[in-house]
Amino acid sequence: MPTDKFINQRKNAWQRLEELLNLLDSASLRRLNREEVRELGRIYRENHKDVDRSRRIWQASLSQFRKTRTTEETEDLLLYAQMLINLAKLEEETGDYAKAADYLKDLLVVSPNKAALQKSIDALTAKAGPQK
């Protein structure tokens, strides 16, 4: 891929990452709203392939969500589902199939498509092998 095309495709994400990191300079991760934390994790994952940092950011976002919201609040269900799906994908990509299945089990509680989700959980559980 030509350098100018590479830069143009990623420039907006890099600018947004810089904005979010500037917010972090003046505040802790806990002061960012859930959407900003989720977005920060997504940008790190997509543009930097920084699995550990993405995991920490999404876990912090999920923890904050669980402390301040409930899954009964419909407007937050999509955000909650996105956090769980991103964490499950990340864990699956790094080979931690049991943890990926655990995140999907949390999602199962609110999912409208429980049968398909259960198949994914079963496949991940099979990949993980017997629990010790």
Describe the structure.
The protein is mostly helical and 132 residues long. The protein is built from six helices and no strands. The mean pLDDT is 77.
Q: Give the helix tally.
A: 6
Write down the oligomeric state: single chain
Question: What is the helix content?
Answer: over 70%
First-residue to last-residue Cα separation: 46 Å
User: What structural class is derived from the secondary structure elements?
Assistant: mainly alpha
State the major sheet: none
In total, how many domains does the architecture comprise? 2
Mean pLDDT metric: 77
Annotation, overall tally of beta strands: 0
Please state the CA-atom Rg, rounded to the nearest Å. Answer: 16 Å
What is the H-and-E element order? HHHHHH
**Which residues form runs of ≥5 with pLDDT under 50?**
none
Instruction: Report the principal-axis shape.
Output: globular
Strand-residue proportion: under 5%
Question: How does the SSE layout of this entry go?
Answer:
Blueprint: H1 3-26, H2 34-48, H3 51-68, H4 74-93, H5 97-108, H6 114-128
Helix pairs in contact: 1-2, 2-3, 2-4, 3-4, 4-5, 5-6
Key words describing this protein structure:
single chain, 132 residues, mainly alpha, 2 domains, 6 helices, 79% helix, globular
Q: How is this structure best summarized?
A:
This protein has helices at residues 3-26, 34-48, 51-68, 74-93, 97-108, 114-128.
